[in-house]
Write a structure and sequence with these properties.
Blueprint lengths: L5 E6 L6 E11 L7 E10 L11 E8 L3 H16 L8 E4 L4 E4 L7 E3 L1 H9 L7 H9 L5 H17 L2 E2 L7 E4 L5 E4 L7 E2 L6 H30 L3
Antiparallel strand pairs: 1-2, 1-5, 2-3, 3-4, 4-6, 5-6, 7-9, 8-11, 9-10
Helix pairs in contact: 2-5, 4-5
C-alpha cells in the first residue's frame, strides 16, 4: 500500500495548524476559473501530533488552487465579508502546498443552488431528482419564495451598509440541507470588492444599484432552476 500524502492546514482564524492525510482527490470539473479538487482526508488535530487510530477523523474539503496573489486577495475578502455578517464558509485554511482549503459543504448530501447548479441541470439530460431537490422545489414554490427573497435582500442590505460589492458572477448560492434547513452562502469571492475608505457618495450609490441587480439576477436564476427541475419529474 502506497504511503499517503500528509499536508499541514493553517486556519485563517488563527487557531492551531493541523495535519491531514489525503485519502482521495477528485477534480471538480466545470466550476469556476481556477482548478478545484474534492479532497477526502483523515485528520488528527495538533501541529506535530502523530496519527493514532483512536484519534483519526474523516474530513472532506474543497481545495482551491490559486496563485499567491489571488490567494491573499481571496483571504482578505473572506475576512471582510465575514466581518460584515455576510454568509461565507465558516473556516478557511491555507495549506502547505500553497492552496486554500474549505469545508466541503456538499459531503452530507447538501446541495448549493446557483450558477454552477444551473449549468449542471441544463447540461445533464439524465439528471434524476433527489430528495434535496424536492426540498428546493418546496422552498421555491409561490407560497415560500417571498421568504427566500426577503432573506437574500437582508444580506444584500448588509453588503450595502458595509460598502461591499457582491460578486457579479455568483453573488449567492442557496444552500439546502437534507433535513430541510436552508440559508445562503457566498463561495466565489474573487469578483467581490470592499469600498475604500473615503469613497464618495456616488460610488456607494453605484454599489447599492449593482448589488440590487446582481441579487435580482440570482433570484431569477433560482426560478430557472426550479423550472428545469420540474421538467425532470
Amino acid at each position: 500500500m502506497s504511503e499517503r500524502l500528509s499536508i499541514e492546514l493553517e486556519p485563517i482564524s488563527g487557531r492551531k495548524p493541523h495535519i491531514i492525510e489525503i485519502k482521495e482527490e477528485q477534480p471538480i470539473m466545470g466550476q469556476g476559473l481556477e482548478p478545484k479538487v474534492k479532497v477526502r482526508a483523515e485528520t488528527s488535530f495538533g501541529k506535530k501530533r502523530l496519527f493514532r487510530k483512536r484519534k483519526r477523523k474523516e474530513v472532506n474539503f474543497v481545495e482551491r488552487k490559486l496563485n499567491s496573489l489571488d490567494s491573499d486577495d481571496y483571504i482578505a475578502k473572506w475576512k471582510q465579508f465575514s466581518e460584515a455578517g455576510l454568509p461565507v464558509v465558516s473556516t478557511l485554511r491555507k495549506s502547505s502546498r500553497d492552496s486554500l482549503f474549505q469545508t466541503d459543504l456538499k459531503s452530507d448530501g447538501t446541495e448549493l443552488y446557483g450558477k454552477a447548479f444551473w449549468y449542471l441541470i441544463y447540461s445533464k439530460s439524465e439528471f434524476r431528482l433527489r430528495p434535496v431537490d424536492k426540498i428546493f422545489l418546496n422552498l421555491t414554490d409561490t407560497n415560500n419564495f417571498q421568504k427566500i427573497a426577503e432573506k437574500v435582500f437582508m444580506y444584500k442590505d448588509l453588503a450595502d451598509k458595509n460598502g461591499i460589492l457582491l460578486p457579479y458572477d455568483d453573488p449567492f448560492e442557496l444552500i439546502v440541507h437534507p433535513d430541510g434547513k436552508w440559508d445562503f452562502v457566498i463561495i466565489d469571492l474573487r469578483f467581490g470588492e470592499k469600498l475604500e475608505a473615503g469613497s464618495g457618495e456616488s460610488r456607494r450609490n453605484e454599489i447599492v444599484e449593482k448589488n440590487s441587480r446582481f441579487v435580482g439576477n440570482f433570484l431569477d436564476q433560482l426560478k430557472y432552476i426550479r423550472v428545469a427541475l420540474l421538467e425532470k419529474i
